[in-house]
Amino acid sequence: MSLTRSAIEPLRFREALGHYASGITVITSHVDGEPIGFTCQSFYSVSMSPPLVSFSVKRSSYSYPRIRQAGRFAVNILSGEQVGISDQFARQGEDKWRGVEWQESPLGNPIIADSLHWLDCEIHAEHAAGDHLIVIGEVKALNPRDIAATQPLLYFKGQYCNLTARSAA
Ligand SMILES: Cc1cc2nc3c(=O)[nH]c(=O)nc-3n(C[C@H](O)[C@H](O)[C@H](O)COP(=O)(O)O)c2cc1C
Prior knowledge:
By secondary structure, this protein is of the alpha+beta class.
């Protein structure tokens, strides 16, 4: 017996993708003295040698053209305590950095305080893909510290969750 194939309806497509649990990152950069960033779930690893990672970004993104201009970005992997940071950087506008503590990475990208981990990247390639762009970065530096006791921020079926909450449920 085969499963039936029908046209892919956007809402059902989104719902299906929601079943894939992931961490959450904020992709940041710095250009013309201004920090830039947006919340990004589509981060993944690509290659070990050379070390490559990737994310996809909406063509309508305000931040990405400026990240492209800088030619570099940091991946801030969020901890379970950073739901507010994820929400703040998912909004389009000027106030994304209000109240956010950060310092510069070796490449000059903003590293958000208390992130679980970070990777510092140079843009290696960019590919058009439907209404998104796939961006590939070559990793040039990493957080030298491992905060093993901290939980990651997770996203599943359109909601934030963390490992502790899920294992206790
Ligand atoms: C949990 C979560 C995950 C997201 N993942 C992505 C993503 O992978 N790619 C993307 O382009 N936008 C993603 N977004 C949406 C952007 O964060 C949002 O559109 C933001 O306003 C973009 O900012 P910008 O226009 O300054 O680039 C995500 C939002 C949330 C809440």
